[in-house]
Amino acid sequence: MIAVAAGMEHSRRSMNQQVFVRDWNSVIETAYVGNAECARCHEDQATKHAAMGHSGTLFTEGLCDRFASLLDRDIADPERDGRFRFQCLGSEFSVSFSNAKDRVSLPIQFAVGSGKHAVTFLTLLESDDGEPKALEHRLSLFHHQTETGLTPSHAGLEVANQLDDLGRLKRGGDVTTCIGCHSTTGQVRGTRVDDLRAGVGCESCHGPGRKHVATMDRGMSALHIAFGKNKATAQEELHLCGRCHRSPENLSVLPDPNEPKLARFQPVGLAQSACFQKSDGVLRCTTCHDPHLSVDRTVTDFDARCRQCHTATQPNPITCSVQPTGECTSCHMPAVEVHPGISFHDHWIRKRGATSP
Predict the structure, then answer these.
(1) Beta strands of 44-117 (E only): which ranges?
(2) Nearest Cα to 338, choosing from 251, 266, 237?
């Protein structure tokens, strides 16, 4: 069961104006108010955010309809002798794996990922020691949910028990981090998640909004919210994004500069870049990425940002002798395939193959 606190509201009229009043004593006390509440005043940002991948990174309801294309198909495991089959019993979405010897099945609770790169399925399991426990399912969706394939890191795994046919067991922080990075709030309690707000919402970055909303509704001066416009430093932005996209301190060992998976850890790569280290805080995540929009795919826009610093008109200019007028990212931030069909741009800004720009 997923418990979500609901708010109640009413309005009163005074002469020719309508005053919005919230009765905070009539609701379950919660620090979070939800995206719709933020949209009352920040409609433009909310509209943009609703169309980007972050808003749909975790799904728990309507899975039968959302993944209807998978239903009642026999899908072969590319490595093992056996087949997967997705089915619905009522509203319960489930998957089974069968071979000549056995059959195992499990309901699917969560679809993780926006589908832009992939969607992976997750099921919470009973735990004897109280530590969160889940199965990361072996079969995922790729290429905008049009193709099935093995979930990243599942290739070559051995089978020790029946559940291994369906996926890989994850425990503890791996489970809570998976849920946490794909939702705004949620507490894993055995086989359920309490107070779940699925998707990376407004309050994932800006923090709990209840006090801010209550203050604004009463016509008082706005309370400061986390990461308001022009309020964060470059390092603070890096660490905010790095909570899920990885920060250097999250890794016990820094990956080799040419390790493909480094491209998945964008804040780690950016932190190693001379461009970041020597820009005195000018270069930051939001220099290139509007946090309320999906990633811009227009190469010329990124090149223009590079040339804001790397032009002959800047002090101590560094210009490119190979392509001085553009196509910066093709050499210095190339797309790197980290899994068949999934590529990310390397954010360690340099000539790939060397450790310095």
Answers:
(1) 58-59, 74-76, 83-89, 92-98, 103-107, 110-112
(2) 266
pTM, rounded to two decimals: 0.85
| Closest to 183 (Cα-Cα) out of 200, 165, 164, 162 | 200
Sign for the pseudo-dihedral over CA of 13, 19, 25, 30: positive
Compute the Cα dihedral for 280, 233, 268, 296 and give only its sign.
negative
How far separated are the first and last CA of the chain, in Å rounded? 51
Residues 31/210, Cβ–Cβ less than 8 Å? yes
* Integer Cα distance of 53 and 115 in angstroms: 8
pLDDT 10s digits, 181-219: 999 999 999 999 999 999 999 999 999 999 899 888 888
- The average pLDDT across 259-277 equals 92
For 246, list phi and psi in degrees, rounded to 5. 85, 135
Fill in the DSSP letter of residue 68.
Answer: G
For residues 232, 234, 235, 241, the Cα torsion angle rounded to the nearest 10 degrees is 80
Residue with tokens 């309005």: 11
CA–CA distance, 4 with 205 (Å, rounded to integer): 20
Helices (H), the chain: 35-39, 43-50, 63-66, 173-181, 202-206, 210-217, 234-245, 266-272, 274-277, 285-288, 299-307, 328-332
**Contact of 66 with 58, CB cutoff 8 Å:** no
Provide the pLDDT for residue 258.
Answer: 86
